[in-house]
Amino acid sequence: MPKKVDHEARRREISEALWRITGSRGLDAASLRDVAAEAGISLGRLQHYFRTRDEMLIFALRHINQLAADRIRARIEALAEEPTPREVLRACLTGMLPLDDNSRIGVLVGAAYYARAVHDATLRAEARNGIPQLGAFFADQLRRAAERGELPPERATEDQAMLLISVADGLASYVLLEVHEPQAAVRLLDLHLANLFGDAVEGQAPAGE
Amino acid sequence: MPKKVDHEARRREISEALWRITGSRGLDAASLRDVAAEAGISLGRLQHYFRTRDEMLIFALRHINQLAADRIRARIEALAEEPTPREVLRACLTGMLPLDDNSRIGVLVGAAYYARAVHDATLRAEARNGIPQLGAFFADQLRRAAERGELPPERATEDQAMLLISVADGLASYVLLEVHEPQAAVRLLDLHLANLFGDAVEGQAPAGE
């Protein structure tokens, strides 16, 4: 195996050690020394892969975002052969919620970075990395839905796409805070899609009547 | 002035010192010693008001949530004499966004608590404190809107009310991350209200056409 691949593989192992600490105790608990211990290597060895804590943090954030993207791609591929745009959107958005161990650690690590990124422009740039592409992908699905007559055409906008991302992200935080059970968050996400797509009234009684 | 009031006033001053540190450097930077220095009092004096750091954190969180609630109440009172339920909802939801210095510090402090609350059940309970009441208030506004024929009646639900809270919270985070300008977040919030209330099509061209 070429040396470069080994290097990347080892960096990924180290970032997984960082996530385990972050997921259980938060990002501030993760010093280079702690991460080295968690990864079962010496501090000197770790510093061979990451010279600074910031370098490690950025790598680990990119890596976890990559895994989240892979997970969402797998969810789309697991759909029926010709999924509707709405099915594609739903698969992506539910993939952003902490519904299982892998996505939960992703959202936990994201929460830790978020709190730090609000005070750190470099991390902030990393944290929002990928959002424009995700927004463009969602907007494309909305346009496809409108073309198929499944969405009111005036709702096939970039703003609606960005709103979808904010909704999923807001719901993900509320699952971590235990405001909502994971399945309630999925229900609220479906409710947002129903509002957006203008689903027909199902005749249920309004609350409180 | 009775002694009890003095005690509370001093505790509020200390919690404001905590927010200033949290707003600029994060919650982990705020030790009892740092907060005492920021408040211009001795550590011993601070410990007269808060025996532990956790006691100080909880008090400061309740205090900032109270200020946010007061700010939202003031926004509602500043509306026209008979605001529509939708105007009331909009005033509350925009009040949750970081649109000025006071609301920005509130959201920054909220971000710091959020990252910590995911690992701490006591803080988690505090962080979600008030959400059920806010949800009930929003659901009540939705029911009023439906009674006035301004909202499809099947949308006057507790779930729609909880979705509104998540949307505002998700957008607030994205303003801190500089994904959205404050005014773009307001625009997306209005878009969500338009989806919810089923606003008539305005005939604008869909994106990309």
TrEMBL record, chains A, B:
Keywords: DNA-binding, Repressor, Transcription, Transcription regulation. Residues 8-68 form the HTH tetR-type domain. SUPFAM superfamilies: Homeodomain-like (SSF46689), Tetracyclin repressor-like, C-terminal domain (SSF48498). InterPro entries: BetI_C (IPR039538), Homeodomain-like_sf (IPR009057), HTH_TetR (IPR001647), Tet_transcr_reg_TetR-rel_C_sf (IPR036271). It holds the Pfam family TetR_C_6. Residues 31-50 bind DNA. This is TetR/AcrR family transcriptional regulator. The lineage of its organism: Bacteria, Bacillati, Actinomycetota, Actinomycetes, Kitasatosporales.
